[in-house]
Structure formats: C-alpha cells, structure tokens
Amino acid sequence: MTSENSNTPEADLESALDALVQSVDPVADAAVEDALEIDSAEEAAAAASAIVDEEVEEEAETAEDPYKAFKKDLRRRPGKWFVIHTYAGYERKVKSNLWNRRETMGAVDDIYEIQVPMEEVMEVKNGQRKMVTRVRIPGYVLVRMNLTEHTWSVVRHTPGVTGFVGNANNPVPLRINEAFEMLKSTVELEPAATAKGKAAANAAAQGNVEIDFEIGETITIKSGSFEGLPGTISEINPAAGKLTVLVSLFERETPVELSFDQVTKMV
C-alpha cells in the first residue's frame, strides 16, 4: 500500500515541487526580488535606466579595447573561418586568385572574406635596421565562407592551393578563439600615420625582430672604442638590440656589449 501511495499523482507533484524549490538560481532570484520591491513608476523607470547604463558602459569598455571589439565583430560575421594550405610565398597570389574566382564562378554570396595576416618586424642585416612587412603565418590563407560542395570546389581548385587544413574533403571550421588568434594582427591599434613610427619600438618590445647574426659568428666592430677589431658573438639580446661580443685583448677574450649597428659581418 505504501508503494502505491508513493506513485500517486499527488506524490509525483510533491516531489516535483520539492525539486523546484531546491533548484535555486541566485541571479534570477535577485532579479525577481528587485522587481517585487518596485512600488512606483518612478522606481521602475530608474531601474530600467540603470540597466541601460550598464549596457552602455559595457559597450564603452568594448570600444576602448579594440581586441574585444574585433572578437565581438568576428562572432557577428556570417559564415565560418576555414584555413587552406598554399605554396610558400604564394599566399597573397592565392588570395587574389580566389577573390577573382568567387566572382567568375558565382560564389559571391557564400565566400565572404579572404585574409592573409601580415605583420611588421624589425630586420637587422649588416648592422642596418629596417622595418619589413611579412606574412605572419607562411603557407596559410584564411577564408570566411559557407561550406558547400560548390564553395569547396572553388577554393580547392584555385591555383596555388594545396588543400584544406584538417579533413581535406570535409574541413572543420576554426573556433572563434582560434580565428581571433590568427587574425588579431589585422587589428589597427592606432592611426596609420603614427603606427609606422612606433612599429620598431613595438616590435623590439615584443621580441618581434629578425636578426641576421648568430651565436659563434665572427664579426668586425665598425664603431666605438674597438673599431676595426674582429670579435665572436657570444650572446644576442633582440629586445635590447644588443650583442655580447668576445674581443681578444692582450691574448685574452673580453666580453664587450655592442648594438647591432656597431658591427658588420666578416666579408
């Protein structure tokens, strides 16, 4: 008899109510309590205004952080990001070819965007520094599109493309975080006019420097107290733009710190 009573609709209802009471949502409860405490139209208007202010503040924070704004924009864009392999050095050519093919082959409505992320790095050759622009991820191109048999064919058979990354016939799109990491170098952090002037400092600070020297290499010092003497590189500090060079003085190797532009390669 007891087991029969435990299976009655009343017992089931009571169990359901108990479960409902125990499933507490603090955020929802707080919102309900706040709403119940509103006694007048003025209080309701003030509450609504506070919510709007919070939303505006959140949007302002996003606007101040270009990376957050870019990531938010990525989520809103139609299509998915896919990565394709290309022959090394042909990334920009593939981008141009694919952009033309999307138009001539009727894929304009499904292939939205093609990106070859670039970056500026400081290159040091023969003691001379210069900023150069290079492909950030050599051998890869990013395509935002709706994947169909037609768009797959348009992309895959573009000259210079060797295939999709992952499953060649059924490629998997990038997650938003993955796309963001690969594309964040395209975000403009400041006006172009001032960005170029600060690029060298930023590159050095981030260790984003290409160096045409290596440890153990013999060089010639071209300026300073040891001008004209040969030396051997023992340490390289890209961020500071410095080399530690071992110079032979009185039959003894002495470490000397020099900047990149104070030395030149042995001819």
From TrEMBL:
Boundaries of every KOW domain copy: 212-239
SMART domains documented for this protein: KOW, NGN
Ranges where the NusG-like N-terminal domain occurs: 78-186
Any GO CC annotation of this UniProt entry: cytosol
CDD domains: KOW_NusG, NGN_Bact_1
Swiss-Prot/TrEMBL GO biological process terms: DNA-templated transcription elongation; DNA-templated transcription termination; regulation of DNA-templated transcription elongation; transcription antitermination
Keywords on record: Transcription, Transcription antitermination, Transcription regulation, Transcription termination
Listed transmembrane segments: none
SUPFAM superfamilies per the UniProt record, alphabetical: N-utilization substance G protein NusG, N-terminal domain (SSF82679), Translation proteins SH3-like domain (SSF50104)
Function field: Participates in transcription elongation, termination and antitermination.
Family, per entry: Belongs to the NusG family.
Protein name, per record: Transcription termination/antitermination protein NusG
Annotated organism of origin: Leucobacter triazinivorans
Gene name linked to the record: nusG
